[in-house]
Amino acid sequence: MTNTIGFIGLGIMGFPMAKNLLTAGLHLVGYDIVSEKVDRLMDHGASRGTSLRDVAESADVLITMLPDSPDVENAYLANGGILECMKPGSVAIDMSTISPVVAVRVAEAAGKVGVPMLDAPVSGGETGAINAKLTIMVGGPIETYQRADEVFRALGSPTYCGPSGSGQTVKACNQIQVALNMVAMAEALVFGHKAGVDPEIIVSVLSGGYAQSRVMDVRGPRIIKGDFAPGFRSKLHFKDLNIIRETARSLACPLPATSIAYEMFAVMQAHGWGDLDHSAVIKVVELLSDTQVHSNTHG
Amino acid sequence: MTNTIGFIGLGIMGFPMAKNLLTAGLHLVGYDIVSEKVDRLMDHGASRGTSLRDVAESADVLITMLPDSPDVENAYLANGGILECMKPGSVAIDMSTISPVVAVRVAEAAGKVGVPMLDAPVSGGETGAINAKLTIMVGGPIETYQRADEVFRALGSPTYCGPSGSGQTVKACNQIQVALNMVAMAEALVFGHKAGVDPEIIVSVLSGGYAQSRVMDVRGPRIIKGDFAPGFRSKLHFKDLNIIRETARSLACPLPATSIAYEMFAVMQAHGWGDLDHSAVIKVVELLSDTQVHSNTHG
Fold it and tell me: What is the pLDDT of residue A2?
């Protein structure tokens, strides 16, 4: 069904995603405020979008991959923004991770100008984006979801989560659980280390039983080596925890443990650890406890 | 190396463990303050221990499986207790889950009367005990651990964790991580439910990615059905969280998220949910949020 895909936002995630759409044989017009990124994508067969307006006007399916809620709101709703320029009957897909509340608001505005819209945030990180193995959580009209199937399959595995905002909600659930599984590992390792047990034994025993988590499988051994190279930067997870807090407030949904995780991620930002992997939350627990689980080989 | 095993404490865990030692062909003298439990074990080939003293005197390897720290302290250290009666050169193994601090104290007292001692708490629950698939976390002298290998292999998979108390420490780490992974799942599901998303979709998407945990694999689908049959009773995990708090205090080890988990488990006890599975911590988050994720089919 797809004629022209417009792709706005060619960052760490957006660039490899756009590339995978080109690899899948789709015609794509790319745009980013940094024009060098568009140049690079043209090497892979993309057409150049000269402006947000230009891309929005030419797209049958428009994809946005932007940093945060205000960027998405502004791109779609501002004067001269996306929704003023899109063809009726075309489809908008926002794949940024933003507030579910904002996602619903933008989708409603899109519906009013005859553009069905999906929220479709992803998990799987840069590696998942490069390898077309993203988990894609999709909210919006189910018939629009079905129309976008070809696009999603070129990027990873989509799951339909419900009406507008549902994709962002499931992404938020994911970020709650990942953050708290990270905190769980951090407190277990610091406690065990302070009591004098080798952290490798703790990771080995816990990973083999009911305490197992994917987070510990992937990051436990790296934490012990002091390797906090991202992965997923703590500042981005902190952004997501801010979205979760705002959304939880609007839902009247108290989240006591998530609020502790939020504060721990705030400590990471205060200490300049925003560009470390989010598993560096163990450094906060170490700071509290005046101890250090990991070696100094990485720092 | 084993001649006679003494086994004290034939409860939900101890009984099937003693039975597995008998199945492995070991000679075993069993004792419990409830004499009917000893009768039942005799049907499986055990000899009857008539008292704590009787079992301690006859054992080459003495195993205790008791409810809590004070029970273990009392059984070993009281006048007329285990340590007054054991043969020099015999071995004591406490497989109860108790405070690492108490484990060290009892092991030191045992060492003074010529009885090397291991702390060897288990995870895997009643099912693991019945199927001889327990994870066994062992602290104490390594040569004593090697002497006890035959016994441990008849019960599950042992890991040597370090000197006295290390087994209890790793068990405590395990209980921290399991409790917080449970809380993580609870907050994610309640948040998503309040935002209007089907919890089955949340479990399905999160289980397939970085948020995956064994706790969600096993309990996510049951929570959605409202099935909180234990498994592991919340009152026992609450006991373990008390041990963790006391130990953390003695180590000067702040654990902010674990303290939240502790309070949530305290709420479960206040509401009479002590005999539900520990995954029922979601009922606390539901209570806070005035919502209900699970159906009423189980109640």
Answer: 57
Q: Which CATH number fits domain B170-289: 3.90.550.10, 1.10.1040.10, 3.30.1490.20, 3.40.630.30?
A: 1.10.1040.10
Whether pLDDT at A119 is above 50: yes
Residue with the larger pLDDT of the pair B193 and B296: B193
Residue A97 has pLDDT above 60, yes or no: yes
Q: Is B257 on the interface with A (CB under 8 A)?
A: yes
> What's the whole-number average pLDDT of chain B?
96
pLDDT band for position B299 (50/70/90)? very low
Q: What is the CATH number of domain B4-163?
A: 3.40.50.720
Compute φ and ψ for A90, nearest 5 degrees: -80, 170
Same fold, A4-163 and A170-289: no
The minimal CB distance from B176 to the residues A187, A244, A247 is found for A187
pLDDT in tens, A222-245: 999 999 999 899 999 999 999 999
- Given the DSSP bridges, would you call strands B134-139 and B122-123 parallel, antiparallel or unpaired? antiparallel
User: DSSP states of A174-197 as a string?
Assistant: HHHHHHHHHHHHHHHHHHHHHTT-
Asked if residue A251 lies in contact with residue A189, where contact means CB atoms within 8 angstroms, the answer is: no
Minimal C-alpha gap between A173 and chain B (Å): 5
Residue pair A262/A241 in contact by the 8 Å Cβ criterion: yes
Cβ-contact B119, B5 below 8 angstroms? no
State the ipTM, two decimals: 0.95
Exactly one of B171, B194, B225, B235 is catalytic; name it. Answer: B171
B137–A251 C-beta distance less than 8 A: no
User: CA B270 from chain center: how many Å?
Assistant: 22
Which helix H or strand E contains B91, and what residues bound it?
strand B91-94
Are B191 and A264 a contacting pair at CB < 8 A? no
Say yes or no: A55 contacts chain B, CB-CB below 8 A: no
| Residue ranges per structural domain of chain B | 4-163, 170-289
- Of B293, B206, B196, B189, the C-alpha closest to A139 is B196
**Catalytically annotated residues of A:** 171
Which residues, at least 6 apart from A43, have a Cβ–Cβ distance to it below 8 Å?
A: none
Distance between CA atoms of residues B110 and B262, nearest Å:
32
Catalytic status, residue B171: yes
Gap between the Cα atoms of B15 and B18, Å rounded: 5
Burial status of residue A196 (CB atoms within 10 A of its CB: 0-12, 13-18, 19 or more)? middle
Is the pLDDT assigned to residue A43 strictly greater than 60?
A: yes
Dihedral (Cα; A203, A208, A211, A214), 10-degree rounding: 80
Q: How confident is the model at residue A297 (pLDDT cuts 50, 70, 90)?
A: low
Contact of B88 with chain A, judged by CB distance below 8 Å, is answered with no
Q: What is the pLDDT of residue A296?
A: 65
Whether B142 and chain A come into contact, CB under 8 Å, resolves to no
**Helix/strand/coil for B93:** strand
A260 touches chain B (CB under 8 A): yes
Averaged pLDDT, B33-51: 96
Rounded CA-CA distance B125/B178 in Å is: 13
pLDDT tens digits along B267-294: 999 999 999 999 999 999 999 999 999 7
